[in-house]
């Protein structure tokens, strides 16, 4: 039996001066006379392994010379501290065991077009930049859940196959569900998480959500992951406070734990370091004023009549006026979902907010206080042209012990794109699903 790896590259400093066996893939190779330099990648990091002809058996040297990009192997040797080495250590190789010799690897260390890379996404995820991005994504999802758990929230998962719409009817993916008619892939877990909220007080769901959006923008996927907290006895104001604490905690944890990955991505961390509560807030009305005065500053940004939704250029302009994420609150009810509580002072606007990320990344969170009055909710369901029968269970939540409650949803990919500073959302999820892409 071959030896299991006795060390990981990330923790190699613990083995300084010792003999170890590392298992991984070849990320690069250069030869210089009696020396072969192998760059080994094991998933935790990269290290240079030096094979000196005089120190190894002839077969070992030949094996090292034969290694190709992405070949898998086990490398044994002594860990040597070396200030000039990127991670501070190198391996003085004593043995090389090839696990599989890879034929010519499709992704070479040259510039490839994004379409080519997307077509090879299953291999592209090994590249340094993609690796750093997806690690940051993993940190964000872990941080989000652990922070909510620490605040007493209980994870309560929503179904994906659902009988009716929750966020508009124009972007539903439908499938035939046996003899029961159409099922729709969930656009949000919110409605179900509201049922959980009435059982646990504070809950969240976390899972994939689906929107058949025909938009081909850098911010839209048809399948994305959303984390959706919901709190009982909580107002719009409470909701904003929760969001700013939640987002700051996630950003600060990524800064602490993923500094190396942020550096790989050449992320300027100054705006992330400023991401501390309280976040500025402006109303939709004030946002329209701001747009009227400054629209010329952003390409494609035009003044908006009251009642129209913000587009990407409007969000970019608004965010550019602030040094950290900004809430835009109290949108016209008519352009928002049926379940949002109207502002009692001004019923034509909703007690809702979108959180816009800095630097042109746009909306990362949408949330609101929910209607808790059964009669009002019934009227709204009808006014939106939805079938009341489909929502009886949801109305029950307002019949039995109804309370003011609020919640929000944060898109993991949008949050990752901003925090990691990557232009297009497609690289923030292992296998993006978009209007024109479903492979691999
Ligand atoms: O604003 P949205 O549509 O809100 C909801 O679905 C609420 N039910 C959430 C809640 O209150 N529980 O979506 C929330 C977030 C957006 O801010 C964005 O981050 C992300 O989900 N999102 C998308 N991300 C990628 N691609 C898309 N097509 C997205 N649509 C929404
Ligand atoms: Mg939204």
Notes on the structure:
This protein has helices at residues 58-66, 114-119, 121-124, 128-150, 190-200, 236-257, 259-264, 270-273, 284-294, 312-320, 374-383, 392-399, 412-420, and strands at 19-32, 35-41, 46-52, 72-81, 89-100, 154-155, 161-162, 174-176, 182-185, 202-210, 223-232, 281-283, 326-329, 342-343, 346-350, 352-357, 362-370, 405-411. By secondary structure, the chain is α+β, with helices and mostly antiparallel strands. It folds into 2 domains: 9-100, Nucleic acid-binding proteins (OB fold (Dihydrolipoamide Acetyltransferase, E2P), Beta Barrel); 119-428, BirA Bifunctional Protein, domain 2 (2-Layer Sandwich). The radius of gyration is 26 Å and the shape is elongated. It starts with 18 loop residues before the first strand and ends in a 20-residue tail after the last helix. Bound molecules: 4-amino-1,4-dioxobutan-2-aminium adenosine-5'-monophosphate and magnesium ion.
A few lines on this structure:
With 440 residues, the protein is an alpha+beta fold. Helix content is 30%, strand content 26%.
């Amino acid at each position: 039996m071959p030896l299991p790896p006795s060390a990981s590259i990330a923790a190699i400093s613990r083995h300084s001066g010792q003999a170890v066996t590392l298992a991984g893939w070849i990320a690069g190779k250069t030869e210089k006379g009696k020396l072969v330099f192998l760059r080994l990648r094991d998933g935790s990091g990269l290290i240079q392994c030096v094979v000196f002809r005089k120190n190894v058996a002839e077969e070992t040297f030949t094996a090292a010379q034969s290694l190709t990009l992405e070949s898998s192997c086990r490398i044994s040797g002594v860990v040597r501290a070396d200030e000039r080495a990127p991670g501070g250590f190198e391996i003085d190789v004593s043995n090389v065991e090839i696990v599989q010799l890879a034929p010519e690897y499709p992704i070479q260390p040259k510039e490839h077009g994004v379409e080519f890379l997307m077509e090879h996404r299953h291999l592209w995820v090994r590249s340094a930049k993609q690796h750093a991005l997806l690690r940051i994504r993993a940190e964000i999802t872990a941080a989000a859940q652990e922070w909510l758990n620490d605040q007493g929230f209980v994870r309560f998962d929503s179904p994906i196959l659902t009988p009716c719409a929750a966020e508009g009817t124009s972007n539903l993916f439908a499938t035939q569900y046996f003899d029961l008619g159409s099922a729709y892939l969930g656009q949000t877990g919110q409605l179900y998480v509201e049922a959980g909220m009435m059982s646990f007080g504070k809950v969240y769901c976390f899972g994939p959500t689906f929107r058949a959006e025909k938009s081909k923008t850098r911010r839209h996927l048809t399948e994305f992951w959303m984390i959706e907290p919901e709190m009982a006895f909580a107002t719009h104001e409470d909701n904003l406070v929760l969001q700013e604490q939640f987002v700051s905690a996630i950003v600060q944890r990524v800064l602490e734990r993923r500094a190396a990955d942020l550096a790989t991505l050449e992320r300027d961390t100054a705006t992330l370091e400023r991401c501390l509560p309280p976040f500025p807030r402006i109303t939709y009305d004030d946002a329209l004023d701001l747009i009227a005065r400054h629209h010329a500053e952003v390409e494609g940004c035009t003044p908006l009549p009251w009642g129209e939704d913000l587009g990407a250029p409007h969000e970019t302009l608004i965010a550019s006026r602030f040094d950290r994420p900004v809430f835009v609150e109290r949108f016209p009810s008519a352009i928002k979902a049926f379940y949002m509580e109207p502002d009692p002072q001004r019923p034509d606007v909703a007690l809702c907010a979108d959180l816009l990320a800095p630097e042109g990344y746009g909306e990362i969170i949408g949330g609101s206080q929910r209607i808790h009055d059964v009669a009002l909710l019934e009227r709204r369901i009808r006014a939106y042209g939805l079938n009341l029968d489909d929502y009886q269970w949801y109305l029950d939540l307002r019949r039995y012990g109804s309370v003011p409650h609020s919640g929000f949803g944060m898109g993991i990919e949008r949050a990752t794109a901003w925090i990691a500073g990557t232009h297009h959302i497609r690289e923030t999820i292992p296998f993006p699903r978009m209007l024109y892409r479903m492979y691999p």
